[in-house]
Specification:
Length: 293
């Protein structure tokens, strides 16, 4: 059985930025993973229609119109804006000519510029308004066919950790025996010699189950397989040839805090083997951030 400690360790670091991707990333390094986290709940409902008209391509507006729930509209708008701002600022594309569409056949997001796919891999996930986006510039990366984009494996998942909802029943039915064993080991390690064992055990219990889930979801996106096919597989073994970066992020608000579990899985190996930095974007979408080339 693979050493499972790395899968439960904090391999993500978080840094807040009062702007959007124009300054959050230092450069557009080919083959590096740039990740962003944005709270789309900050987009006011009164802004939605105007912002969609301002930032969304006509093809995107057709899909956007099918979103009925406010949160779905907020998440869609935020994800497309961030991806296109990144492509404009770091790769030099005309913002208004960019369009982000999901390819049902290839089961991935593609970024188009004047209907041509650009050299940018992206993967998104959202939960309770939080939007996670991972981007990899494939410009200048070698391929056997120069007209194609390198087949990079990239998957992300973001899940709100609910301590009220138990995943134990789901886990017993769908998790691999070694995954269950690893979750129980996490609980035993964290509550040992604790004066508040019951409360800590409950929190760690939820975090452990959700970590397995985000790993499975991110893996499914990375290898382009339906999550249903991976539920019973041992995610630790499946991830062995890949690079896994996971962590927890806590959001504080006036009422109470929310914790989210994040996993990023890719076949890209970071040269310094460091944590992946998550750029938390804190600016609002109430001004025009576009810089049309």
């Amino acid at each position: 059985m693979p050493d499972t400690a790395v899968f439960f360790s904090q391999r993500l670091t978080f840094t807040s930025h009062a702007d959007f991707p124009s300054n959050a990333a230092s450069d557009s390094r080919t083959g590096a993973i740039d990740a962003y986290l944005f709270n789309s709940n900050t987009i006011e409902s009164e802004q939605i229609t105007a912002l969609a008209k301002q930032y969304l391509h006509p093809h995107e507006q057709v899909i956007f119109a099918k979103r009925k729930q406010l949160q779905a509209k907020q998440e869609y708008l935020a994800s497309r804006f961030i991806i296109k701002t990144y492509a404009s600022e770091h790769l030099g594309y005309d913002f208004d000519a960019l369009c982000v569409l999901f390819d049902d056949k290839d089961t991935c997001l593609n970024v188009y510029h004047h209907d041509e796919i650009i050299s940018l891999r992206c993967c998104i996930s959202h939960s309770h308004g939080q939007v996670l986006i991972a981007l990899v510039s494939t410009k200048n990366m070698s391929t056997t066919n120069q007209a194609t984009i390198p087949a990079i494996k990239l998957g992300v998942d973001l899940e709100w950790i609910s301590t009220k909802r138990s995943l134990a029943k789901v886990a017993k039915h769908y998790y691999h025996a070694q995954e269950l064993q690893a979750c129980l080991a996490q609980i035993e390690d964290d509550v040992e010699d604790s004066t508040n064992a019951e409360e800590i055990a409950k929190a760690v219990h939820a975090m452990a189950w959700y970590r397995i889930w985000t790993l499975k979801e991110a893996l499914a996106k990375a290898i382009k397989q339906p999550i249903a096919k991976l539920l019973r597989d041992n995610v630790f073994e499946s991830c062995q040839p890949l690079n896994v970066y996971s962590g927890c992020y806590e959001v504080a608000n006036k009422e109470h805090g929310k914790a989210f579990d994040l996993s990023i899985i890719s076949d890209i190996e970071l040269t310094d083997n460091a944590n992946i930095h998550i750029n938390i974007l804190t600016a609002s979408l109430d001004q025009d951030f576009r810089k049309v080339k």
